[in-house]
Design a protein that fits this description.
By secondary structure, the protein is α/β, with parallel strands linked by helices. It has 3 domains: about 5-115, Methylthiotransferase, N-terminal domain (Rossmann fold, 3-Layer(aba) Sandwich), CATH 3.40.50; about 130-355, tm_1862 like domain (pyruvate-formate lyase- activating enzyme, Alpha-Beta Horseshoe); about 360-410, OB fold (Dihydrolipoamide Acetyltransferase, E2P), CATH 2.40.50. About 35% of the residues lie in helices and about 25% in strands. It is built from 13 helices and 18 strands. The chain starts with a strand and ends with a strand.
Length: about 425
């Protein structure tokens, strides 16, 4: 083997894992190929959080095995959450795959390639990058497979996080997202934020996946005072009805969510909040859903709603409980609720467009014609389109020309 390419499925945390796998391949002497069809080795880093992710991973794996069969000297490595969730039971079916490794098993790839104890350093490129601050999750929510796939929560040492940030900034990153399954559970989260924002004043930093149960009391102060900490908060609240939250095993109730949001609303610096929510959860009544709607409509800081249906994932507590209690929400009702949340999201975008009208705000240029504002996460939220080309990687003070749905048009402010 002389060259490789890594294909990533799933969330930003998987992107970090892929960059570490790429670093292992480079240390083993392989060249990176931008075009996967020209590589000798394809590494597929999979996601298996919910059924659609499993299906996508299996479909992509089938494509790679077809690619391997079409030419000699080709190799396929299956990595990540799919083998982490479904281990080899000896029944066969994996013979065509050259190596199967679970989450965090980059050393097995190194040994297979003949590399000697490579450091798990990220290797990648791009205006925005991600750095993990922890592995695994210990929350054990009733619907979630992640603890079974990735194990218990283990914080990454603060010095190692800072070192990783220095690495990706040195590789050209202009924005760094700090990610984990439960970022707020890191005992040194605010210290890490203080350190990296101080070391790299010209780089944006953005926080992802701050579980409401572990929301640090001093985080709002940092959002207010650190100019290069994006005024953005990713909160996976999942619901706002007390009975649903209790059944989900989230460890908090609506009062906790209200206190967090009241604090955010009281900051002198506007902060954009992204909520992740689940609807169609077993036992979710119309009253529960209307409670969620009312909560989502209460706070002007809410900018993004990422809404998902509940999936019956085998191995979770809810999978067994829902089967016994037979109180699943009918599929058509779940779709109606998702549609209602989508409409609410559109009205929220409209309100934010009015809020930004006539104001100047910074936009990071991902390319010469597109970018994302400080209020929007790259590859996840609203994309900004520039009327006139700008320098990729630059931060441009802009004004809003028009905003419609999940897109907005901006121009350089005078």
């Amino acid at each position: 083997m002389k060259s490789f390419h890594v294909i990533t499925l799933g969330c930003p945390k998987n992107q970090v894992d892929s960059e570490i796998l790429a670093g292992v391949c480079l240390e083993a002497g392989l060249r990176f190929r931008k075009d996967p069809h020209r590589a000798d080795l394809l590494v597929l880093n999979t996601c298996a959080f919910i059924e659609p992710a499993v299906e996508e991973s299996l479909e992509k794996l089938g494509e790679l095995l077809d690619w391997k069969a079409a030419g000699g000297g080709r190799h396929v490595v299956l990595a990540g959450c799919l083998p982490g969730r479904y281990s080899d039971d000896g029944s066969g079916g994996l013979e065509e795959i050259d190596l199967v490794i679970g989450p965090g098993e980059h050393q097995r790839l190194a040994r297979w390639l003949g590399a000697e104890n490579p450091l798990p350093r990220q290797n990648g490129a791009g205006v925005f990058r991600y750095v993990k601050i922890a592995e695994g999750c210990s929350n054990r929510c009733s619907y979630c497979t992640i603890p079974a796939i990735r194990g218990a929560f283990i914080p990454i040492d603060a010095a190692c996080v800072v070192d990783s940030v220095n690495t990706v900034v040195g590789q050209g990153a202009r924005e760094v997202g700090l990610v984990a399954q439960d970022s707020g559970a890191h005992p040194e989260l605010t210290r890490i934020v203080e350190r990296v924002t101080g070391l790299h004043p010209g780089v944006w930093f953005r926080l992802y996946y701050v579980h409401p149960s572990h929301f640090p009391d001093d985080l709002p102060g940092l959002l207010e005072s650190r100019h290069n900490l994006a005024p953005y908060l990713d909160l996976p609240i999942q619901h706002a009805s007390a009975p649903v939250l209790e059944r989900m095993g989230r460890g908090y109730g609506p009062d906790r969510l209200s206190r967090i949001m009241d604090t955010i609303e009281g900051l002198s610096r506007p902060v954009a909040v992204r909520f992740t929510v689940i609807t169609g959860y077993p036992g979710e009544t119309d009253r529960d859903f209307h409670c969620l709607e009312r909560f989502l409509g209460r706070y002007p800081s809410l900018r993004h709603i990422a809404a998902f249906p509940w999936w019956p994932e085998e191995g979770t507590r809810e999978y067994e409980r829902a089967a016994r209690q037979r109180d699943a929400v009918p599929g058509h009702e779940t779709m109606e609720r998702l549609s209602a949340l989508s409409s609410l999201g559109e009205s929220i975008y409209h309100s934010w467009a009015e809020r930004l009208s006539g104001k100047r705000f910074p936009v990071m240029a991902d390319t010469s014609l597109t970018g994302h504002s400080c209020y929007d996460a790259p590859d996840a939220d609203l994309q900004a389109t520039f009327i006139n080309p700008v320098v990729p990687g630059s931060v441009v003070m802009c004004s809003l020309v028009s905003g419609s749905g999940s897109e907005m048009v901006v121009d350089k402010a005078e």
